[in-house]
Design brief:
Strand content: over 45%
Strand order of the largest sheet: 4-3-6-7
Largest sheet: 4 strands, antiparallel
Distance between the termini: 55 Å
Oligomer: single chain
Number of strands: 7
Number of helices: 1
Shape: flat
Length: 134
């Protein structure tokens, strides 16, 4: 009886520990903390909402003389899912920063901009995002 109770308590503690680790990693990424990359100096995403218009931009900078490209994608949250709205593309040669962005009338709601970069023809694929509501 005591052994079964101990196993249940240990399992519950392990589950709580795992859940807190997942919650912490989701919070960290949403707070703008980006993972460390080997060939990427920086990856950025920006989203500003004003007057029903979403102003979106993103950039990726390689850490060496690599070509780079970026796709910046705007999503709207609908019924708990992210629905594609539009995207922009940019590229750069050598060690230059690739950037892309634009604006789109979206009205009100919750929106996410995702910056997906490519460094050196697929050597690395950094990504980051930002979420905002108006």
């Amino acid at each position: 009886m005591k052994n079964t109770l101990f196993k249940k308590i240990a399992c519950l503690c392990l589950c709580m520990l795992l859940l807190s680790a997942v919650t912490l990693s989701v919070y960290a990424e949403g707070a703008g903390i980006t993972p460390r990359y080997s060939f990427t100096a920086a990856i950025k995403a920006s989203l500003n909402l004003s007057g029903g218009t979403a102003y979106c931009s993103g950039s990726v900078t390689p850490s060496g003389g690599y070509n780079s490209s970026i796709t910046v994608t705007l999503y709207r949250q609908e019924n708990g899912s992210w629905v594609y709205v539009t995207s922009w593309y940019g590229s750069a040669s050598g060690s230059a920063t690739a950037s892309a962005g634009g604006s789109k009338y979206v009205g009100t709601g919750t929106f996410k901009v995702v910056s997906n970069g490519i460094i050196g023809n697929g050597l690395e694929r950094p990504t980051t995002y930002i979420v905002r509501s108006n």
